[in-house]
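Quiz preparation item.
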Protein backbone atom coordinates (compact mmCIF):
# COMPACT_ATOMS: atom_id res chain seq x y z
CA UNK A 1 0.00 0.00 0.00
CA UNK A 2 1.47 3.37 -0.99
CA UNK A 3 1.21 6.65 0.92
CA UNK A 4 -1.83 7.81 -1.06
CA UNK A 5 -3.78 4.64 -0.36
CA UNK A 6 -2.74 4.67 3.28
CA UNK A 7 -3.78 8.31 3.76
CA UNK A 8 -7.10 7.76 2.01
CA UNK A 9 -7.86 4.63 4.04
CA UNK A 10 -6.59 5.83 7.42
CA UNK A 11 -7.54 9.49 7.24
CA UNK A 12 -10.08 10.33 4.56
CA UNK A 13 -12.37 7.32 4.80
CA UNK A 14 -12.12 6.99 8.58
CA UNK A 15 -12.87 10.67 9.13
CA UNK A 16 -15.77 10.65 6.67
CA UNK A 17 -17.24 7.55 8.34
CA UNK A 18 -16.73 9.00 11.82
CA UNK A 19 -18.50 12.26 10.96
CA UNK A 20 -21.28 10.35 9.19
CA UNK A 21 -21.82 8.09 12.21
CA UNK A 22 -21.87 11.07 14.58
CA UNK A 23 -24.35 12.87 12.29
CA UNK A 24 -26.67 9.86 12.29
CA UNK A 25 -26.46 9.51 16.08
CA UNK A 26 -27.13 13.21 16.66
CA UNK A 27 -30.06 13.16 14.22
CA UNK A 28 -31.64 10.18 15.99
CA UNK A 29 -31.19 11.80 19.39
CA UNK A 30 -32.65 15.07 18.16
CA UNK A 31 -35.72 13.40 16.63
CA UNK A 32 -36.26 11.10 19.62
CA UNK A 33 -36.25 14.02 22.03
CA UNK A 34 -38.39 16.30 19.86
CA UNK A 35 -40.97 13.59 19.13
CA UNK A 36 -41.12 12.67 22.84
CA UNK A 37 -41.69 16.31 23.78
CA UNK A 38 -44.42 16.67 21.15
CA UNK A 39 -46.23 13.55 22.38
CA UNK A 40 -45.89 14.47 26.05
CA UNK A 41 -46.99 18.08 25.63
CA UNK A 42 -49.91 16.98 23.45
CA UNK A 43 -51.16 14.72 26.24
CA UNK A 44 -51.21 17.47 28.84
CA UNK A 45 -54.28 19.41 27.53
CA UNK A 46 -56.19 16.16 27.06
CA UNK A 47 -55.39 15.00 30.58
CA UNK A 48 -56.41 18.36 32.01
CA UNK A 49 -59.93 17.75 30.65
CA UNK A 50 -60.24 14.38 32.36
CA UNK A 51 -61.07 15.32 35.92
CA UNK A 52 -62.05 11.78 37.00
CA UNK A 53 -58.47 10.52 36.84
CA UNK A 54 -57.00 10.02 40.30
CA UNK A 55 -54.01 12.27 40.94
CA UNK A 56 -54.60 14.07 37.65
CA UNK A 57 -52.72 17.18 38.77
CA UNK A 58 -49.70 15.10 39.73
CA UNK A 59 -49.69 13.34 36.35
CA UNK A 60 -49.94 16.65 34.49
CA UNK A 61 -47.17 18.19 36.63
CA UNK A 62 -44.95 15.14 36.07
CA UNK A 63 -45.46 15.21 32.27
CA UNK A 64 -44.74 18.95 32.22
CA UNK A 65 -41.53 18.40 34.17
CA UNK A 66 -40.43 15.56 31.86
CA UNK A 67 -41.11 17.77 28.85
CA UNK A 68 -39.08 20.62 30.37
CA UNK A 69 -36.18 18.28 31.18
CA UNK A 70 -36.13 16.80 27.66
CA UNK A 71 -36.25 20.26 26.10
CA UNK A 72 -33.39 21.40 28.34
CA UNK A 73 -31.30 18.34 27.47
CA UNK A 74 -31.87 19.02 23.79
CA UNK A 75 -30.75 22.63 24.21
CA UNK A 76 -27.74 21.63 26.30
CA UNK A 77 -26.42 19.00 23.90
CA UNK A 78 -27.50 20.90 20.77
CA UNK A 79 -28.23 17.69 18.86
CA UNK A 80 -29.71 19.46 15.83
CA UNK A 81 -26.71 21.72 15.20
CA UNK A 82 -24.31 18.85 15.89
CA UNK A 83 -26.18 16.69 13.41
CA UNK A 84 -25.99 19.39 10.73
CA UNK A 85 -22.32 20.15 11.45
CA UNK A 86 -21.29 16.52 11.39
CA UNK A 87 -23.26 15.84 8.20
CA UNK A 88 -21.81 18.89 6.46
CA UNK A 89 -18.26 17.86 7.35
CA UNK A 90 -18.88 14.27 6.24
CA UNK A 91 -20.24 15.44 2.89
CA UNK A 92 -17.35 17.90 2.36
CA UNK A 93 -14.83 15.11 2.95
CA UNK A 94 -16.75 12.75 0.67
CA UNK A 95 -16.91 15.41 -2.06
CA UNK A 96 -13.18 16.16 -1.87
CA UNK A 97 -12.40 12.43 -2.05
CA UNK A 98 -14.73 11.96 -5.05
CA UNK A 99 -13.15 14.90 -6.88
CA UNK A 100 -9.70 13.41 -6.25
CA UNK A 101 -10.77 10.04 -7.65
CA UNK A 102 -12.30 11.70 -10.72
CA UNK A 103 -9.16 13.80 -11.31
CA UNK A 104 -6.91 10.83 -12.01
CA UNK A 105 -5.00 10.53 -8.71
CA UNK A 106 -1.87 12.45 -9.73
CA UNK A 107 0.66 13.54 -7.10
CA UNK A 108 -0.38 17.19 -7.42
CA UNK A 109 -4.04 16.21 -7.05
CA UNK A 110 -3.14 14.15 -3.99
CA UNK A 111 -1.39 17.15 -2.41
CA UNK A 112 -4.55 19.19 -3.03
CA UNK A 113 -6.66 16.42 -1.50
CA UNK A 114 -4.53 16.33 1.64
CA UNK A 115 -4.67 20.10 1.94
CA UNK A 116 -8.44 20.15 1.43
CA UNK A 117 -9.16 17.32 3.89
CA UNK A 118 -6.91 18.76 6.59
CA UNK A 119 -8.49 22.22 6.14
CA UNK A 120 -12.00 20.76 6.42
CA UNK A 121 -11.08 18.95 9.63
CA UNK A 122 -9.20 21.94 11.04
CA UNK A 123 -12.10 24.29 10.27
CA UNK A 124 -14.60 21.88 11.84
CA UNK A 125 -12.45 21.58 14.97
CA UNK A 126 -12.10 25.37 15.15
CA UNK A 127 -15.87 25.85 14.85
CA UNK A 128 -16.43 23.20 17.52
CA UNK A 129 -13.95 24.89 19.87
CA UNK A 130 -15.53 28.31 19.26
CA UNK A 131 -19.00 26.95 20.01
CA UNK A 132 -17.74 25.34 23.22
CA UNK A 133 -16.05 28.58 24.27
CA UNK A 134 -19.22 30.58 23.62
CA UNK A 135 -21.21 28.11 25.76
CA UNK A 136 -18.72 28.51 28.62
CA UNK A 137 -19.16 32.31 28.64
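Solution:
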Amino acid sequence: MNNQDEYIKNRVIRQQEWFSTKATTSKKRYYNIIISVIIITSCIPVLSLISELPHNNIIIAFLSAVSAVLTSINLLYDHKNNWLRYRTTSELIKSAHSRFIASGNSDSDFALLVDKIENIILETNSEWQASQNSMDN
